[in-house]
Design brief:
Radius of gyration: 24 Å
Largest sheet: none
Shape: rod-shaped
Number of domains: 1
Strand content: under 5%
Structural class: mainly alpha
Helix content: 55-70%
Distance between the termini: 66 Å
Number of helices: 5
Number of strands: 0
């Protein structure tokens, strides 16, 4: 198993994929490859934390604000030509 396949395999393991690739091959590569082992160890703390993140807390994703949407539509309608009414 090469490093690229190992990364896919440990990502599947860390994210509890239904079909985890060959565990023995993954373990053998992690034992032999220091850089993959370090990356796996660094990422192994991440999955439990993912459950703590709310969708609206993701960077760049604003909280839903219905009133802001209504105000934006009203403002757009007031700028629109009178022919649409």
């Amino acid at each position: 198993m090469d490093c690229e396949h190992t990364r896919h395999a440990f990502a599947a393991r860390l994210l509890n994929a239904r079909e985890e690739p060959a565990s023995a091959a993954l373990e053998a590569h992690l034992h032999a490859c220091g850089s993959c082992r370090v990356e796996y160890e660094e990422l192994s703390d991440l999955p439990p934390l993912l459950g703590l993140v709310e969708v609206h807390e993701l960077d760049g994703v604003p909280l839903p604000d219905p009133q802001r949407a209504i105000d934006a539509v009203r403002a757009e309608m007031s700028r629109a030509p009178d022919t649409a009414r």
